[in-house]
Structures are given as C-alpha cells and as structure tokens.
Amino acid sequence: xxxxxxxxxxxxxxxxxxxxxxxxxxxFAGIVTQFWFGAIMVMAxxxxxxxxxxxPSISLAEAITYIWLGQAFLGLLPWNVDPEIAxxxxxxxxxxxxxxxxxxxxxxxxxxxxxxxxxxxLRSIPILIVTSAVFAFVGLGAWSLRPPSSSESLAxxxxxxxxxxxxxxxxxxxxxxSVVWTISGQGINVITNSLVLILSGMVIPLPLFPEWAQPxxxxxxxxxxxxxxxxxxxxxxxxxxxxxGIALQICxxxxxxxxxxxxxxxxxxxxxxxGG
Amino acid sequence: MGAVRLYGRYAAAxxxxxxxxxxSFVLLSLGQFLSTVVEFIGVWALFSRFQSLGNWTLAxxxxxxxxxxxxxxxxxxxxxxxxxxxxxxxxxxxxxxLLLRPxxxxxxxxxxxxxxxxxxxFLQGVLVLAIAVGLLDLSWGAREVALLLSxxxxxxxxxxxxxxxxxxxxxxxxxxxxxANTLTYGGVTAAQYPIEIYSKWLRxxxxxxxxxxxxxxxxxxxxxxxxxxxxxxxxxxxxxxLFGFVFLGISLMTWRVGExxxxxxGN
Lengths: 276, 267
Prior knowledge:
The structure holds 2 protein chains of 2 kinds.
Chain A: H1 2-5, H2 7-20, H3 24-49, H4 60-72, H5 83-91, H6 94-99, H7 104-137, H8 151-182, H9 186-200, H10 214-219, H11 227-233, H12 239-269
Helix pairs in contact in A: 2-7, 3-4, 3-7, 4-7, 7-8, 8-9, 8-11, 8-12, 11-12
Chain B: H1 3-18, H2 22-50, H3 58-78, H4 80-83, H5 85-90, H6 95-100, H7 105-110, H8 119-135, H9 142-173, H10 181-191, H11 200-209, H12 212-216, H13 218-224, H14 234-239, H15 242-261
C-alpha cells in the first residue's frame, strides 16, 4: 500500500530537492538582494510610522518582523511556472509524463513542493539568523526580527507555514498545467507575479491597507501565503482567529488541488504533443 | 557612418526583430507595467493610512517616483548588451568578434538590443509623473522643465554607468555578478522615496559613492521649490544631475581598463 501510493512521490521530492541544493551561489546572490530590499522597506516604514498617525493595527516592530519573515520565505511564493515543465511542453517531452505509472497531478504537485521548499530552505535560514540575532548585536535592535509572541504562537506559526508550502505547491501546479494551452508560460508569469506580490502582503503588509479593504483581503487565497502565518507569529491573530486563518489556508489548498486535478484530467485527454 | 547613424541601424534592426513576436512583446510590456503599478499601489496605500511621510506628501513622492522610474526604464531599455555581457560575450568568447570591428565596443554593446518591453515601466513612470504634476501646484517655467529633463537624462547615465561597471567586472570574473542588481533595481526602489527618509549611511552611499540622490533627489527638491531638508544649497540642486554623467564617464574609463585586461576564453 505505502509502496505504491506514497513512495514514488517521496522519491520525486527527494531527488528534486537535492538537485536544487546545488545552486548555492545563486542563493547567496539572492540573500544579499533580499537584505537590501528588506532594509529599504524597513527604513521607509519607520519613516511612515514616525509621526504616530494612521492608527495601524500592527506596531512598527510587528511590521518589521512581517517584512523580514517575508524576505526569508520569499521563495515559497507561487509567482512563476516551473521552467522545466514549460520546457517539457515546448519540446514535447511532456508525453513521457503520461507514461509514468503515477498520477500526473500528484507527481507535479510533489515536484512543486520540493522546488519551493528547497529554494526557500537555503535562503531562509541565513536571513532569519542575521535579522534576529546579528542585528541586535550590531546595534540594529530596532530593525530586528522579533521572536514569536509565545510558544503557542510559534506552534501555530509552524502549522500555518506547513499550510503555506502546500497552498503554494497547489497554486504552482495549477499554473504549470495552464502552460499546456499557452506553451510559453511567459504570459501567465506576467499576470500572477504582480497579483501574488500585492495580494499576499509582500509589497506592503496587508494590515496597512485601508480598513475598508481588510475583510476582502483576509479571505482571498493569497493572504494565506504571507499575511496569515506572519500575523499568527506575532499574535496579531491568536486563539480562534489563528485557527480560523489556518482553516482558510487549508480550504483554499483543497480548492486548488481539486481544481488542478480536474484541469489535469481535462487537459491530458486533449493534449497536443509538440513534435520534433 | 557616424556613431549616431550606426546606432540607429542597430536599434531599427532590434525593433524589427522584437516585432516578429507581437504577442510576446505586448505581454512582457504589460507585465512590466503591472509589476511597477502594484509598487505604486503600495505607496498609495501607505499614504492613505499614514497621510504623510515625514513632511512629504503623496504628490511630492509621486514626483520622485515617476522621475526615477522613467530614467531606469530608459536605461534598462538600452543597456541590455552590458547586462548580459558576462554569459553572452566573455564566457562564449564572442567578445573577440566585437574587438575585430573598427568601432568602440561600448557602442556595439549598446546596439546589442533595444528592449522595447521596458516601455511598460516607462509608461507607468510617465503616468505617475503626470499625476504628480496634476496634483502639485507648481510653476512650470523653462527652467523647471529643463531641470526635470536633465534629472531624467542624468538618471539614465547613472543607471547605464552601473550596468557598465557590472559588465566590466565580468572581464575578471567571467560570470556576471547578480549582486550588481541590488544597485540597479535596489537603487530604483530606494529612490522611489525621497532619500532624506533613509539612515545617514545609506544617504551618504547614494550621494558620494553612487550619486543616485544627485539625479533622483536634489533636482526634484529644486523643482518642488522647497528648502532641502538635508541642507544642500540651491545652486547645487540645479547642477546635481551632472554627477550622473560624471559617474557614466568614470564607468566608461573603467571599462577601457577592463578591456585592455581582457583575455579570451578561446574557442
């Protein structure tokens, strides 16, 4: 039972994870870039908060924590199509995917999961360590990533981040499937890129948007990628609200998995293989 | 053929090539437009909550934002050859062919590609600038227009200078260093707000090392007609864009040093 149902997907996950861990130089460049962008954002927010106006629902320290968590876990965002799958579509190698004795949807889901997790793992740890521990030592305490509010928030945060990885993989897989129609994948990256950045909370923390927008921003699926887990981390969402947020993440993950699975079945019946 | 006419030929060929894929051109331009528009939505949202950024209003910040985006879009449009210099020319040894031609290598690299998709960011910058001009009650005389145009021109020179320096490094490292993006893209992001709001070390870096504030902060303060909160004297606000060109000049001199140092990877 285990052998046929789970093992192939675990093997796919492990193989891809190890491949991606090879790109250490790219990760280093990425980390430097993210410190820089994070620092600019932190300085701009500090200047906005300085006058004490606007009665934001999160404090400056919380907003800064939000920014650094965002930079650390940037790699988890489902902002683009897997370039290898896009290449598969162009070359026609996608035909091989149909020959494998596994469910193609969950095969691609496992790939996406490994891809996002591996890229993030390499980049998040140094950013988390430097922004939390090193900043305090070098006199940048006001700019540092604060520890979670309580052990309960930390536990809920870990749970919520686990949901993020799955939500992101489900969205990525849906994007990957859509490449079957557009072949290049470029067009899809263009639209999703901007939407994901603004609606997840990466451009500015969602609680800083106007109050009238808050209810809509909370229930839309992209909040589950950034906003919900980070607000759980500093207990802006706690207790029942936190559990509600996690339930929302899980619901959206299920919706995207069901949608993706249906779409995969539909497209694979009528797929045209590029020859050559 | 003069350098300008030759560049015209290069540009025309590049435009023709890109127009072979009109759908791709439209989508990528749209993407550039959207991804920069969401940045401005973020700025707008912060102002709608906090009302002001220190003493700066949204309309004033929009003037900084629009100017630097226009300058960067234009620089990004023309400097593609330098941007891909490491992987496309040094590693492959293709730079040898450029050296054989009786023209400056910098000109040939400028002619490598004119990236029209950057029109997306350019249009967004123009849009934000237009909003700013509409909201601000400024007197636009010939002097103000000239200062705005020279700020944009100086900004283009500065950003091209940064990409040239990045390419120069490739003479030694072969690969392009992605870290250089922190200065180009990171510079635009920083200059979208008035430099005055940042910590002293960052302000000094962007004034004395990479003179970004000379093209994206001081001239705009001059156009706004206010006293510089950082205390620069008025005459300096009006000549500051020149430092963008000085920076480009130094970059090109460094480029020539690198060029002499070049040894082909062979092929």
